[in-house]
Amino acid sequence: MLDINKIRGDFPILHRKVNGKPLVYFDNAATSQTPRAVIDSIVDYYSNYNANIHRGVHTLSQEATNAYEGARQKIQKHFNAAKSHEIILTSGTTHGINMVATGFTDLLNADDEIIVSALEHHSNIVPWQMLCEKTGATLKVIPMTDEGSLDMEVYKDLLSEKTKLVFVNHVSNALGTINPVKQIIDMAHHYGAAVLIDGAQATPHIKPDVQELDCEFYTCSAHKLCGPTGVGMIYGKEEWLNKLPPYQGGGEMISEVTFEKTTYADLPHKFEAGTPNIAGVIAFGVALDYMNRIGFDEIAAYENELLEYATEKLLSIEGMKLYGTVQEKASVISFNIEGIHPYDIGSIVDKLGIAVRTGHHCAQPIMDYYKIPGTVRASFSFYNTKEEIDLFIEAVLKAKSMLS
Ligand SMILES: *Cc1c(COP(=O)(O)O)cnc(C)c1O
Question: pTM of the predicted model, to two decimals?
Answer without folding.
Answer: 0.96
